[in-house]
Structures are given as C-alpha cells and as structure tokens.
Amino acid sequence: MTAYRARLTDQDIRRLIKAQDEDERAAAAHKLCRGIEKAELSDEDRAAAQKILRLLSQDAAELVRRAMTVTLKASDLIPHDVARRLAADVDSVALPLINFSPVFTDADLIEIVQAGSAVRQVAVAGRPRVGRDVATALAEFGCEEAVRALSANDNADMSEAALGRCVDRFPQSSEVVSALAYRQALPLSVTERLVELASDTVREHLISRHAVAPETAIRLATFARERATVDLVDQAIGEPDLKGFVASLNARRALTGSMLLRALARGQMALFEHGLAELAGAPHDRASLMIHDAGPLGLKALYDRAGLPPRLFAAVRAGVDTWTAMQAEGLETTGEAFQQRMLQRFLTQRPNAPREDLAYLTERLDARAPEARAAFAA
User: How far apart are CA 12 and CA 127, in angstroms?
Assistant: First the structure.
C-alpha cells in the first residue's frame, strides 16, 4: 500500500477522525479519496481503502459524505452496498454517484427510476452509458425532463419500443421530439412518427439525416395538419357508437366544454348528452333526464359535476333552451336543415360565448348557408 500511504499523512488521518469542524473533515476526506483514486492498490490495499470509505459514508456531516461521492463518483472502489445506501441519501450526496458510478447494476438503476424522483431520473438518464433495460424503464416511468435527457444521450441503448414509448408519452413536447430527432440512429417507424410532430427545422434534419423520402415527409406532415383540424362535431355525425366516441375523445382530452357547446349550437343534442354524461360519470339516460326533464337546476347540477368552466354555462343554457323550443314546435331534430336553423337561431340570441367559439359557429353558418337554403326550399 506504499503508493496509497505516500499520499496520506498521519496528520490527514488525525484530521479525518478527530476534527470537530465538518469543513476540516470534508477537506481531509477529499484528500484521502483523491489519494485512493490515484493509487495502484493491491487486493489488501483495496480492502483497507474500502473500510475507510465505509466510515466516511457514515459520517454525520453531509459535507463529508458529499466530498466522498464527488471525488469518487466514477470510481469502482466504493462497495456496492455503500453505493446503494448513498443513493438514498440527500440529493447533494446521491446525485454524483447516480449520474456516474459504475458500481450500480441495471437493477439498482431501474429501482431508482421507479422510485419517481425527477432529479434522480435525470441523473440516471444522463449516465455515460445507459443499458437497454434501464432506458426502457426511463421511457415508461421517467418524467418529461428525464425522457428528454435520455433521448439526447446517444450512449443510451434505446430499443425501438422504448423510442416509440417516448413519442407516445410526450408527443406535444418539442424538446423531447427534437432530442429524439437528433439521435444518431433511429428506426424508420419512429422517424416517420417524428416527422408528423416536429417543427419545420427538425423535419428537414430528419429528412436529410435519416433518409426519409421527401414525399413521405410531405404526406405525413399534411396528414398531421389535416388530423389536427378535423372538426370533431362533423366527425360525430353518423357515428354509430356515440358513447364510445366521446369516451375516446375524453381519453385524448379533446372532450371540452368548448367542443360540447359547438355541438349543441349545431343541433347535435345526442353528442352533447353523451359528452356531459361521460364527463360527469353518469349514465346517459340519467344525464338526458337531468338536461331535459329535471327542471332548471338539473342541467346546472350535471354541468357542475362534469367540471366544465362556469363562464360557458349561460351559453349552454341558451343552447338547450333553443333546442327544446324548436322541438316543441314539432320540428324534426335531425338532418342538415334543422342543424342550420338551430345554429342560426342560437346565434341570433347573441349568446355569451367565447369569441373563438362564436367565430367557429359563424363560419359554420356561412359554410352551410347554400345547402340550408336548398333544404328549406325543398
């Protein structure tokens, strides 16, 4: 242990063991750990050094434990059980080891990821090497920042399934999408999905770097824009399973108060009923009864239970009243002619609806006007 002892004097040992001041002990710990790291150790020397490290890891002062983990963060000298214990320490002590230590097994790292601490997940994601199983766990359980760090780490062994899972979980995150797009290698299935989501600059990189045919990129980008602008109310017309349709919208967080107001104003009462029932967690029959037959308070109670914004309720109330009045007039409540008439009558009431919803409804009224006139004439 000659090389090791040459770097550590008796005074260093006394400072480490006897010093009451934690700054002094931390300085001694740093010098000791630096000496251990640089020394050429025999098996006997290594065992002796690890005993000292065990003592350091149990020091009451956070500063001392941090001095140890920062100095030996990339060393394989720290015993495995000590590394695991320090990984559960405060962040200032744990993060250097989690980010670099070769002592951890993949099982250790997966356990850290699944524990859910965002900063520790990021530390795992940024390691010099991330194994496939660890990358898969990060893709499944990691926070957005950790998934971005993982995606940006070309030394992370990410399977096609793990890459796809990152896209599944964070399709709206421009940082995750960009980090994935700039990886050195991507499977075609993931590249094509990223083309749909990426900005123009990142899309150009994908086309040039990953050999996506330009016509494929244009087709996918056009499809993405069209899909984003699909009118959900139009899509619901003729839908045989409205309950399933609104459930899928709710799962995608597309079942909003604005969408339901637009459906109602366009005469799509069935869609409105199923949507409120879905959001309120009520059977459709009961929701329909509360909307139409439970007096003035029934709709309000159901609306509040659905968690919709109070500012829209007056417009929703006006829409239900308009539909009810038109039904009482004996009008057939299905078909394009009714939808256009309902929309027209609703708008003439100057409902207290958001500007973007009124603009949408006015646009729909203008777009359907020639067809509606023909239907009325017939």
Answer: 33
**Confidence band of 231 (pLDDT split at 50, 70, 90):** low
Query: Which stretches of 126-241 are DSSP H helices?
Result: 132-141, 144-152, 160-169, 174-181, 188-197, 200-209, 214-228, 232-236
* Span 102-149, pLDDT tens digits: 999 999 999 999 999 999 999 999 999 999 999 999 999 999 999 999
26-73 tens-digit pLDDT: 888 888 888 888 878 888 888 888 888 898 898 888 999 999 999 999
Cα gap 198→110, rounded to integer Å: 30
Residues in the chain: 378
- One-character DSSP codes across 40-54: ---HHHHHHHHHHHH
In this structure, what token pair is assigned to residue 183?
């990886």
CA-based radius of gyration for the chain: 32
Whether residue 30 contacts residue 53, with contact meaning beta carbons closer than 8 Å, is answered with no
Nearest to 259 by CA among 289, 236, 291: 236
**Domains of the chain (ranges, CATH numbers):** 2-184 (1.25.10), 235-377 (no CATH)
